[in-house]
Model the fold of this input.
Amino acid sequence: MHSTSGARVRPESHTETRPDGSPRGRLRALCNPAIVTGGLTELAWVGAHVLMYPLGTRTEALRPDPRNRPGDQPPGVRALFAADPLAARIPVLLVHGLIDNRSIFTVMRRSLRRRGFAHVCSWNYSPRLPDVARGAADLGQHIERICEQTGHERVHVVGHSLGGLIARYYVQRMDGDRRVDSLVTLGTPHSGSVLAHVLPTPLVRQLRPGSPVLRELAEPAPGCRTPVTAVYSDMDQVVLPTASGRCDHPDLTTRNVLVRGVGHMSLPIHRSVVDEVAATLAGLRTTATAEVPDRAVA
Done:
């Protein structure tokens, strides 16, 4: 399979046009209403997330939502799954990022269930995870348990930050494409982040641009069946440069989606992002580079 992200199609924020580098120009950019709103939302969500963090220390048990019964859904839900009603039954697994837990998906988990997805759960990996490959192996074991519990042969995976890279490694390098129907990454450093040079831990070193793990993921992956949608933001303060949030690989079916004015931690709660995730998992998106409109928090 070939990437349809298009080498010549690049988001407006990453073209060769350079912004005004003068102090006045930088100040004008910082005073942009979208940047200010996104920054305030990020600060508010980080504060709320700190309070909720202790509540997400345990891995969530998989329980079907009893409200999602065939014929009982509201019109909006039925419209989302009109093309493929069975898509609502495929389990959705949410995978958090570095030094985090499932509480980061509090809003998205509830929003996906409200949109009609019957099986939505999250998974906590160990905070002492030594490397990406070990995380991918653990993820594979958890997915096998989900398939056994639900009777489904495949699942959807949504990964935030490092969680997306762990899921991609499982799909590409551990035959995970036989289990993962689609993968959506949110703010994942597919090409690394220069901030990874700050912490010298073994796991964080794997997130540096050009690391052995990232070079391994750049190797050929012929026949990989899982489509990858990479959602990234032009205001991501963790994935730097922000274009590193794109997933570009010649053997993968990829779709890169740019959102503007959304911070790294706010990606899982932003309404535009949640809408994009829901539409992708429902099979309503084709593989192409895109930019989603700005909307309020989900």
The mean pLDDT is 85. The first strand starts at residue 92 and ends at 95. The longest helix spans residues 33-52. The chain has one domain: 22-55+68-291.
